């Protein structure tokens, strides 16, 4: 087995050394062996809405822009209220259910947190 650490970004075990850098062939991440120990601990990222408010699981948000539904001719209209969101990692960082549409994934940049 290799004595090299796993990639801190994608956890791939196929890391190789090039001069003083370690390189992951799967995601292309380059890192130092010393810094890999410090960055190997996953940190929880903060997800913010379009106004800069911090979002949490269970929040209610409002859609701030008409959003086309991929694979359909329908549109989620501006002002649509979405209750009980769930935050996930990835490009679309909100999972939710929208009345009339069902389960969807949204980007946080297109919603605003509802303050009660």
Structure in a nutshell:
This protein has one helix and eleven strands, in the order βββαββββββββ.
What does this structure look like?
6% of the residues lie in helices and 28% in strands. It folds into 2 domains: 1-39, N-terminal domain of TfIIb; 60-113, SH3 type barrels (Roll). With 116 residues, it is mostly beta strands. It has one helix at residues 33-39; strands at residues 16-18, 21-23, 30-31, 61-63, 67-68, 75-76, 81-82, 86-87, 94-98, 102-106, 111-113. The longest helix is centred in the first third of the chain and has 7 residues, at 33-39. The strands form 4 sheets. A 3-stranded antiparallel β-sheet has the order 1-2-3.
Query: What value does the average pLDDT take?
Result: 85
What is the CA-CA span between the terminal residues?
A: 55 Å
Strand-residue fraction? 25-35%
Strand arrangement in the largest pleated sheet? 1-2-3
SSE order, as H and E?
Answer: EEEHEEEEEEEE
So what's the CATH class of the largest domain?
Mainly Beta
Sheet of most strands: 3 strands, antiparallel
Q: Number of DSSP helices?
A: 1
Number of domain units: 2
Q: How many E-type strands? A: 11
């Amino acid at each position: 087995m290799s004595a090299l650490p796993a990639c801190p970004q994608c956890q791939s075990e196929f890391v190789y050394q090039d001069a003083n850098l370690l390189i992951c062939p799967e995601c292309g991440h380059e890192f130092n062996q010393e810094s890999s120990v410090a960055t190997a601990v996953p940190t929880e990222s903060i997800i913010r809405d379009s106004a800069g408010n911090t979002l949490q699981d269970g929040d209610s948000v409002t859609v701030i822009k008409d959003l086309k539904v991929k694979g359909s001719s329908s549109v989620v209209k501006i002002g649509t209220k979405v209750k009980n969101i769930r935050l996930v990692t990835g490009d679309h960082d909100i999972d939710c259910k929208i009345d009339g549409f069902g389960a969807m994934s949204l980007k946080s940049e297109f919603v605003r947190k509802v303050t009660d």
